[in-house]
Specification:
single chain; alpha/beta; Isopropylmalate Dehydrogenase; 2 domains; ten-stranded mixed β-sheet; two-stranded antiparallel sheet; 12 helices; 21% strand; globular; binds 1,4-dihydronicotinamide adenine dinucleotide; binds magnesium ion
Length: 365
């Protein structure tokens, strides 16, 4: 039987970029004999419109059963005034929580053709290919106690950074596994100088390293890490860090490489019975209501998210390489959606024009 893929296009440009990914999935089925059992469902505002909830129990169950889930984006102004309990984001949060996706992979990769696009000097980013692994289900965003309390005659805002050994252990293992498939170099970032959770983090990561003797492990304080990422990002291969630092560091690293329309992500959980990790793949960008429905959206972030699925869920690293090379070729030959245009007057490709260009490059591969 074919591996199963649940597609949740969502809102705004989500369905537009996903339509291009569908073309690419079909191409792999027809030309590379790599077929998937694809099913499609609703998430976010689209699910709310149809069912009054941003994610139905049926779709949640489908996601739990699927070999991988590919999501577009959720949200939009139409839903801004909804009650928090049914906001589009809640659909995505429920998926992440119930699938227990604790390891968030955010690559920062600079395609040579876009090196000029970075806010940094070309030689600092050209050829950059790093991966930030962010712990996604624990830490200060979830720790108790939390809240705003009265103390004396003023209010106090409280959040708690809390990590168990097992939470650190499992995300560290996923980062080491990743390092083994890449350049066997892992840098762990925390603030062990001022945080108890940082001391424990460093301790547990060092312990896990014993199971991966081939991986060269280093430790760095996260504030220095931020500086190093901007100063000389190519010194890194895989970075592993907690939820809060990972949120900030991965957003900063993302901007090393240019447009939001280029950035994929994966969120992985524990292995299922078939050995594949629970997995949700999605572009980093949102539903982009400002350009939705105009055929302007760049589908590459979503296409590269599918490429990550090929690599991390379906063990098709060579086919993922093929797809990424096709994207690289289109960019090298000057193919640009509007978000990637410089000042000069090149005619931009539409969303489907970019999808077709990638297909043409795949055909030529
Ligand atoms: P956004 O990522 O949707 O858009 C930010 C800017 O980047 C916009 O100018 C947009 O046109 C541009 N952009 C984003 N993706 C693009 C693409 N593929 N091609 C070309 N240009 C692109 O973030 P924003 O505006 O803060 O949020 C809009 C809506 O999306 C909100 O409802 C927000 O809650 C939701 N959102 C959803 C996310 C998700 O589903 N994971 C993540 C972030 C925001
Ligand atoms: Mg963020």
């Amino acid at each position: 039987t074919n591996p199963s893929l649940l597609i949740l296009p969502g809102d705004g440009i989500g369905p537009e970029v996903m339509a291009e990914v569908r073309k690419i999935i079909d191409w792999f089925g027809a030309k590379r004999d790599l077929a998937f059992d694809v099913s499609e469902g609703l998430v976010g505002g689209a699910a709310y419109d149809a069912h009054g909830t941003p994610l139905t129990d049926e779709t949640m169950e489908q996601a739990q059963q699927a070999d991988a889930v590919l999501l577009g984006a959720v949200g939009g102004p139409k839903y801004d005034d909804l009650d928090f309990s049914v906001k589009p984001e809640r659909g995505l949060l429920r998926l992440r929580k119930e699938m227990d996706l604790y390891s968030n992979l955010r690559p920062a990769q600079c395609f040579d053709a876009l090196a000029d696009f970075s806010s940094l000097k070309k030689d600092v980013v050209a050829g950059l290919d790093i991966m930030i692994v962010r712990e996604l289900t624990s830490g200060i965003y979830f720790g108790e106690p939390r809240g705003i309390i009265e103390e004396g005659n003023e209010r106090v805002g409280i959040n708690t950074q809390r990590y168990t050994e097992s939470e650190i252990d499992r995300v560290a293992r996923s980062a080491f596994e990743l390092a083994m498939r890449r350049d066997k170099k892992l840098c762990s970032m925390e603030k062990a100088n001022v945080m108890e959770s940082g001391i424990l983090w460093r301790d547990v990561v060092t312990e896990v390293a014993k199971d991966y003797p081939e991986v060269e492990l280093s430790h760095m304080y996260a504030d220095n890490g931020a500086m190093q990422l901007v100063r000389a990002p190519k010194q890194f291969d895989v970075i592993v860090t907690d939820n809060l630092f990972g949120d900030i560091l991965s957003d900063a690293a993302a901007m090393l490489t240019g447009s939001l329309g280029m950035l994929p992500s994966a969120s992985l959980g524990a292995p299922m019975a078939n050995g594949r990790p629970k997995a949700l793949y999605e572009p980093v960008h949102g539903s982009a209501p400002d350009i939705a429905g105009q055929g302007k959206a760049n589908p590459i972030a979503c296409i590269l998210s599918f490429s990550m699925a090929l690599r991390y869920s379906f063990d098709q690293g060579a086919e993922a390489d093929r797809l990424e090379a096709a994207v690289e070729k289109v960019l090298a030959e000057g193919g640009r959606t509007a978000d990637l245009l410089g000042e000069e007057g090149v005619t931009p490709l539409s969303t489907s024009g970019m999808g077709d260009a990638v297909i043409a490059a795949l055909d030529a591969s």
